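[job 0417] fold request received: Histidine phosphotransferase
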Amino acid sequence: MSDAPSSATASAPDMLELAALLCSRVCHDLISPVGAIVNGLEVLDDDPKPEDREFALDLIRKSAKTASARLQFCRLAFGAAGSSGAQIDLGDAQTMAKGHIEDGKCTITWNLPRLLLPKNRVKLLLNMLVVSQHTIPRGGLLTVDPIGEGAAMSFRITATGHNARLPQNISELLSGERGPAADAHAIQPYYTRLLAQACGLSVTLKLEGEAVIVTAS
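[job 0417] inference complete; emitting structure tokens
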């Protein structure tokens, strides 16, 4: 019988494993649009008919735009995004969030003022948006509201959509009740918890009627 720890009591990943899992998460987000670009180029290599050529070019344009938006978002949400102690403009965060998340199924209502906030708070906000998006798999609306003001501002995101739900295990990963599984999906809410802790906050996820509320406080 194995004496390895269960997933509920697994130890936290070390720095190397955390970096590897976050890299896997970024690759997971990019593989689809990059693969579509490759497919479009292969169609062009086959000297297609004019209508197929236009289809391939349109696929490449859309996929390149998607890949660029996801890269910009991931750089800010998961990457260094400036020196230690840097501040980030919430207006830039809004642009990147909309470019990454708004895809025809999901839209964002952004009720935050435009100001500079500490880097980790903005990274926390973007990761909260990713968590919120998972609660409305069929699409819907994410409404972002401030809690407090100034440099101490925190956030509340309301996710509304058909069959809004609490994804399995995410609440436990955010609260620390469950250890992260060694995969790119679980590492994102776990990383969100680490960002919240760095800001002196905690993130909660709860169902209220037909909406899911994600709060950092």
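[job 0417] notes: The radius of gyration is 19 Å. Strands lie at 87-89, 106-110, 116-118, 140-147, 154-160, 203-208, 211-216.
[job 0417] exit 0
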